[in-house]
Specification:
The chain is of the alpha+beta class and 595 residues long. The chain has 18 helices and 20 strands. It folds into four domains: 295 residues, FAD/NAD(P)-binding domain (3-Layer(bba) Sandwich); 144 residues, Beta Barrel (Elongation Factor Tu (Ef-tu), domain 3), CATH 2.40.30; 64 residues, no CATH class; 57 residues, DNA polymerase, domain 1 (Orthogonal Bundle). Strands 1, 2, 6, 7, 8, 9 and 20 form a seven-stranded mixed β-sheet that branches. The N and C termini lie far apart (53 Å). The structure holds flavin-adenine dinucleotide (FAD).
């Protein structure tokens, strides 16, 4: 480890890995500091990447030049496009992954990346001078100078693990929590901290399961890769897939849970921070839906080597003995062998309204936060923030324009806008319903939406961009009826004639709707991007209510669009704000003329 870097990233989860690769590929000297080299890009919960709205984000990360999609293609063991029975606008790619392979591929990309140094080391403090980051202090007492810091510490800050009535400190099961860094964010950086809870299901030995009593869930044939850059034809020839299985809880399972509910850390008052409503524990499901006779569970392979199985749908904070009884009550699992018990974790996060849309903190210059530390949940949400924080830290360092995606551009734009504008009151995950323009921001057209940005910041190579331009021009020519001829597959590669045809048919299908959406988007964007001067005094706008003034002063929206999306802010408030901005601009002009 050197004494000085341009950017230091703390934490090598999915956010940290994308951030580090983006910085190094842009060309800045990058250090990735992580507590445990054996858990790089670890998936501590479900063994899958993508899914509804998340799959779209993975395609967007890929189009920007990120790593997640490509690695999923290498480590994926079962690929399925969700929502296939509905329109292509909401098709969402998902892949079961071999977790060990995923982690190994990511470490390999990092180790082989120029400008990037990964080191196993705990960061203890961030040193700030004049409200600007200047160095990171390690557990061994080294002080490493840096211009930018990106913190991506996931569930590790003050992490506390619960299994039934037992609890202990931990960032994940078997990994130490990070206490000093949380204190430093509070005391050295002056950030507010809050707490959330999440939980994970037990894992079992697949050899102890009778799969003949369960419903088999095969992958798509042929599978569709995530990455725009994967050689689809050859990949499909060699990709081996393994199925998942589906099964249900039953009356006996529910009785066991109900009888022991006070044993659960989620019900006995131990883990009392907010958890995700949309990803409820099995205890929550029994309490909230007492009339339901059964709940669906999916048995998903954790990796190919060990036959260990993840039980999707059985998130729990129950004690280990009750977990065992509950599992044995399920058909096909009568003789089940548990390999890892489910657990709940409570951790510190930084309420994300303290961030700018670039993911830099408002309080401390050159300090960026990304991933679960910002109150999100999910690998894809983490990776999406990671790549944006990485790009922006590097762009800031080299003095170039940073990237802020809008809600019309991408799900990633929606994610970050929601976080920094509305904040979170439970761990945030992406849904298609959060997208106002979901017909336009589809998984199939992520390249058309974002590859120019990936190119501008230096994450898409010349050779690849040239081929992308040929693909895009072919689409334009066919659409405008200039030419119906297509370049060969070889010229288009990794795009193809088949991809041109598919894209064209989706475009034509949605053309009318999309044009209407675009004209609405245009109307909104007229004021959406209007900047609010940083010296505008919200308190001086007498027509605003006190509550609205307080909200504006706290969130410090940068544009009218961002101000508009703050919960409780009305269109009339925006008119008042607009008038105040115009008035300020006029008086500044008047002042400068007088001088
Ligand atoms: C118990 C549990 C349940 C979960 N349940 C769900 C779920 O239901 N649904 C879902 O979508 N997602 C779930 N996840 C969330 C998913 O793990 C995260 O959203 C995602 O992995 C977060 O990525 P990240 O990069 O922000 O952080 P993480 O993947 O947590 O990575 C953090 C990294 O920071 C490192 N680190 C921490 N502190 C320091 C330090 N001081 N110095 C150096 N390195 C440090 C760690 O070693 C680690 O590499 C769960 C996670 C856990 C642990």
């Amino acid at each position: 480890m050197d004494k000085k870097y341009d950017v230091i990233i703390i934490g090598a989860g999915n956010a940290g890995c994308e951030a580090a690769l983006a910085c190094a590929r842009i060309g800045v000297k990058t250090l990735l500091m992580t507590q445990n080299m054996d858990s790089v890009a670890n998936m501590p919960c479900n063994p899958a990447i993508g899914g509804i709205a998340k799959g779209q984000m993975v395609r967007e990360i890929d189009a920007l030049g990120g790593e997640m999609g490509w690695i999923t293609d290498q480590a994926g063991i079962m690929f399925k496009v969700l929502n296939k029975s509905r329109g292509p606008a909401v098709w969402s790619p998902r892949a079961q992954c071999d977790k060990k392979l995923y982690s190994a591929y990511m470490l390999n990309s990092i180790i082989n990346q120029k400008n990037l140094h990964i080191v196993q080391m705990q960061a203890e403090r961030i040193i700030v001078k004049n409200n600007k980051v200047c160095s990171v202090v390690t557990k061994l007492g080294d002080v490493v100078e840096t211009s930018e810091v990106i913190v991506t510490t996931g569930t590790f800050l003050n992490g506390k693990i619960f299994v039934g009535k037992t609890f202990f400190d931990g960032g994940r099961f078997n990994e130490t929590s990070s206490v000093s860094l949380s204190d430093s964010l509070k005391n050295d950086c002056g950030l507010e901290i809050d707490r959330f809870t999440t939980c994970t299901p037990p894992r079992i030995n697949g050899c102890s399961v009778d799969y003949s009593k369960m419903e088999i869930q095969p992958g798509d044939n042929p599978p569709i890769p995530f990455s725009h850059f994967t050689d689809t034809v050859n990949w499909q020839k060699t990709k081996k897939q393994v199925p998942c299985h589906m099964v249900y809880t039953n009356e006996k399972t529910h009785k066991i849970i109900a009888a022991n509910i006070q044993d659960s850390s989620l019900y006995n008052g131990l883990a009392d921070a907010h958890g995700p409503r949309y990803c409820p524990s099995i205890e929550d499901k029994i309490v909230r839906y007492p009339h339901r006779e059964r709940h669906q569970l999916f048995l998903e392979p954790e990796n190919l080597a060990t036959k260990e199985i993840y039980i999707n749908g059985l998130f729990t904070g129950l004690g280990e003995e009750v977990q065992k009884q509950m599992l044995c009550s399920i058909e096909g699992m009568e003789n089940v062998v548990v390999t890892r018990y489910g657990y709940a974790i409570e951790y510190d996060y930084v309420p994300p309204t303290q961030l700018k849309p670039t993911l830099e903190t408002k309080k401390i210059e050159n300090l960026f936060l990304a991933g679960q530390i910002n109150g999100t949940t999910g690998y894809e949400e983490a990776a999406a923030q990671g790549i944006i924080a990485g790009i922006n830290a590097a762009m800031k360092f080299i003095g170039q324009e940073q990237v802020v995606l809008t809600r019309q551009d991408a799900y990633i734009g929606i994610l970050i806008d929601d976080l920094v504008t509305k904040g979170v009151d439970e761990p945030y995950r992406m849904f298609t319903s959060r997208a106002e323009y979901r017909l336009s921001i589809r998984s199939d057209n992520a390249d058309l939406r974002l590859m120019d940005i990936g190119r501008r910041v230096g994450l898409i190579s010349d050779a690849m961009y040239k081929r992308f331009e040929l693909y895009r021009q072919t689409l334009v020519d066919i659409y405008d009826k200039v030419s119906q001829e297509m370049p060969s597959d070889e010229e288009l590669f990794p795009w193809s004639q088949a991809k041109v045809q598919d894209e064209m048919s989706i475009t034509l299908k949605y053309d009318g709707y999309i044009q209407r959406q675009k004209s609405n988007a245009l109307k909104i964007s007229k004021y959406e991007n209007k900047r609010i001067p940083i010296d505008l005094d919200f308190n001086a706008i007498s027509s605003l209510s006190r509550e609205t003034k307080e909200k504006f002063a706290k969130i410090k929206p940068e544009t009218l669009g961002q101000a508009h999306r703050i919960p409780g802010v009305t269109p009339t408030d925006i008119v008042f704000l607009y008038i105040a901005i115009e008035k300020m601009a006029r008086s500044k002009k008047y002042e400068s003329q007088r001088i």
